[in-house]
Amino acid sequence: MSLIAKQSIYNFITISIAFVIGAINTIFLYPTYPGKEFQGLVVALLATSNLLQPFISFGIQHALIKFYSSYSKKEDRDNLLWFSIYFPIIIILALIPVYIFLKPQIISFLTNVNEEIEKYFKMIFYIAILTAYFEIFFSWLRIQLKTVFGNFLKEFYPRLLIFLLLSFYIFELINLDQFINLLLIGYFIRLLIVVVYSLYIYTPSFRINLPKNLMSILKYNFLIFLSGAAASIILDIDKSMIYSILKVENVAYYVVALFIATVIEAPGRGLFQISSPLVASAINNNDMRRLEVLLKKTSINLIIICGFVFIVINSNLSELYQVINQEGYSSAISVIWIVSIGKLFSMSMGCINNIISNSKYYPYIFWFSLISGFSAIILNLLLIEKFGIVGAAYATLAVIVFINICKLILILVKFKIHPYSYKTIYALLLIIIIFYIINQISFELTPLLLILIKGIISFILFSFFIIKLKLSENLNQIYNNGLRGSIKLLYKVFSSK
Fold this sequence. Notes:
Elements: H1 3-32, H2 36-57, H3 60-68, H4 74-110, H5 121-143, H6 148-170, H7 176-201, H8 214-245, H9 248-262, H10 266-284, H11 288-314, H12 317-324, H13 333-347, H14 352-357, H15 363-387, H16 389-415, H17 422-439, H18 447-469, H19 473-481, H20 483-493
Helix pairs in contact: 1-6, 1-9, 1-10, 1-20, 2-5, 2-8, 2-9, 3-4, 3-5, 3-8, 4-5, 5-7, 6-7, 8-9, 8-15, 8-16, 9-13, 10-11, 11-13, 11-17, 11-18, 12-18, 13-16, 15-16, 17-18, 19-20
């Protein structure tokens, strides 16, 4: 079995288990025990730190992936690796005066409605620094095609950490202050682990020389930083603004719904992590055929897999909230509908983002993200005040659709390729039809049992028509070859052969 296939399968398993633990945390433990105020506060802290993280890494983790394979000499590669370590330190030192100057304004914005966050304000910055350096060393592993353990630390570790801390809190072993302090310590331990493992996988010769093409790297860093900052705004500004405009419990309602909707994109996360260096390699080698194969195969496979998840989630919304069974949370059902449509559309693009960010056209991402970031701020401000958390969902959907259409147009114009085919239309029609059928099913059963039955029926119907219509070569091979076919699936997603 190829290295790519092995790591893709392991990554998928890791992410799947991570999402299960995340579901336990987000849907059951948080709402049932600490409560919505506790959940809203922790989520707001982490979301705000995610907004700050791009300002610290400054895009260097993406520069590693883009430029590493372009160097043929070991010394040049080592220079780039060492530069990625000390460059953020310069950024942090430059940000300290800004932090001191703007601290009162930031605190005032965040504590407009909820004053509790001021007590934990410094934690936002500490977690942002730890996360930024983790992403750098994770990219270090990705360029060595050693993603499994790094992916474990990125996806599984934080959710397991939250699970353990929530368990300690439930059994009254820790309080809220200790919860947040231990969360910070846990993030520090994660960084320490990934640093040790990265150096074990590859230890560069110590150098203080600047990398070749420094100006190109800095230009790329700057644009990717701005794009990353805008992307972070798109991902997390909704939670931060809900916290600043509405009561803290609304963050909890929103984040539970958002988590459920985000499960739709889980199948793509492991694929994109391993596809990024492969896309970079194809572009550096000017292998356009392989690039198109990567794009189309990831697109149709993700439409099908994520479409199935879409059906299971949105046909069981009432049952899911019966399982949660906590006051107020069901007010966010519409959020799941709205955001999940956007997530499915985004996944249908396949590895389009990898292609743009690793090509000479990466500056376009900056402009797309910049416009989207400003749009997200304005739309959230207007819509949250008018429609509450549903307004935040509409803002998210609008931004997702806009930025992905921009990327699609760019790919069409510059590369003369696109992710879609006639099979895309068939797959979407099949998703709509099967969703309608499953949504008509109603039995007097417990919520969990009904969810299970609907899921099984959805899987049988969806699989039958996908196989019969031959919408995916890879999925048909799974059917024809059984376990052996499943091993080959992800290999073929990334193979141009």
